Amino acid sequence: MTQPTVSSNTSNKGKKGKSLPSGLIIRTGKFVWTTMWQIMMSNLAPRSKSGEYIRPATQFHHAIGTEPGNPYPPATGRYNLYVGLGCPWAHRTLVVRSLKGLQSVISVTIVSPSSDEGIWVLNQPESGCRTIPEVYNLAQPGYQGRCTVPVLWDKQTQTIINNESAEIIVILNSQFNEFAANPSLDLYPEELKPQIDTWNDKIYHAVNNGVYRCGFAQTQSAYEQACEELFTALDEIDTNLDTNRYLCGDQLTLADVRLFTTLFRFDVVYYGLFKCNLRRIQDYKNLGAYLRDLYQIPGIADTCDLESVKRDYYGNLFPLNPGGIIPSGPDITNLWQPHQRGNNK
Ligand SMILES: N[C@@H](CCC(=O)N[C@@H](CS)C(=O)NCC(=O)O)C(=O)O
């Protein structure tokens, strides 16, 4: 490796001692950068004492429904979703909206991350709001929590109904059937609920949030623990998919939707940026084909935006990628290749 100190060749004679010793530069740089990294990571990713990422809980949990006293009845044109296309949690809501055929019932506002401000910004200002924190503040003046997407918004009362993707997709699945183009599609059927809930709990902890627990870990041991749990869960899912087309058998459910949005991003961003690199999804016996199977369901690919995913993660998570360089690959055109996962599974 080239040393940036004084060389002994003749042209540098007389300059000896003018360069800083490289060790000092390295130590100072490391100290400044590590301190800044810790400060920025503590804002981006709250942590436990041992350096594990702790995801903050969401705060709006109202429901839409016809029960007496509920101020938020099902309606067409009344509700709006705020979503970032890079965000896996928001992506779940777009998938269910599309599968149920709710595009003309529930409107969508696309937001993009602002790397300088560290917040989501509306692509087009609406209701006097330019940013997602302004939307939260309109719903609840003085709101102090995290301003996350997705947000399910009531245009009539100008408030947030719900900002938890796991709950929003249950609402979208069941409450808009009178307006939906696919009302008979039930992604959370009564008889499969226990099985779906069991998968959801496992997959949320080890996979959906697990990739973040790897990427946002602030100690080696926290990272290793998260990584082990992630790949143990992926192995278990892969084995299950040997005999089942979808997680709960031959029927697509919310458990698959929730897994899909993480798998879609896995080889593209989590493998590299979040250090989830023991294996790629496409290296698994079943998970790669399962991902293609879901991607090819009519309506799903339309919700997937690879360029936004890469830009939002690599371009905006500054402490993880300070240079902001967005990788060229990988090539995901193979998502259109045959998946061979038919009814024989
Ligand atoms: N539990 C929430 C998580 C949502 C979430 O963390 N969204 C991220 C984007 S991928 C966000 O908006 N983060 C902004 C922040 O934490 O300030 C859900 O599932 O809806």
Care to describe what's here?
It is a single chain. By secondary structure, the chain is of the alpha+beta class. It folds into 2 domains: 79-174, Glutaredoxin; 190-336, Glutathione S-transferase Yfyf (Class Pi), Chain A, domain 2 (Up-down Bundle). It has 10 helices and 6 strands; from the N terminus they run αβαβββαββααααααα. The radius of gyration is 23 Å and the shape is globular. The chain starts with 21 loop residues before the first helix and ends in a 29-residue tail after the last helix. Residues 1-12 have low confidence and may be disordered. Glutathione binds at residues 58, 84, 87, 89, 146-150, 164-166.
